[in-house]
Design a protein that fits this description.
The relative contact order is 0.09. The chain has helices at 7-39, 52-76, 78-84. It has a domain at 7-64. It is elongated, with a radius of gyration of 20 Å. Helices cover 68% and strands 0% of the residues.
Length: 95
């Protein structure tokens, strides 16, 4: 097109925004639902049953969301961390 619009960059930003903006909350809500099913909060025909497999899967989803949030915070603060602590992580440049 022209020098002002970069379609590749726009596509990358939209995809990343959809993954982080919609994907992580969707994973978290799926984890909440699986956790409720796993501990027997929801009743199926009046019968409460526990499912350790669903509990384990819900905690795995919670862990994935937590790791993504921690990496996001570290990515935002990478220059601060590098300057004050000396750990140049996630592509931070030594200045």
């Amino acid at each position: 097109m022209n020098g002002w619009i970069n379609p590749t960059a726009i596509f990358q930003i939209v995809v990343a925004g959809l993954i982080v903006g919609a994907g992580l909350p969707a994973l978290f809500s799926l984890g909440v639902r699986l956790n409720a099913e796993g501990v027997g909060v929801t009743a199926h025909g009046g019968v409460m049953r526990r499912s350790p497999a669903l509990l384990a899967l819900s905690w795995v989803l919670f862990a994935v969301v937590l790791v993504a949030v921690i990496i996001g915070v570290l990515f935002i603060a990478r220059d601060f961390i590098g300057h004050h602590i000396g750990w140049y992580i996630l592509g931070a440049k030594h200045k």
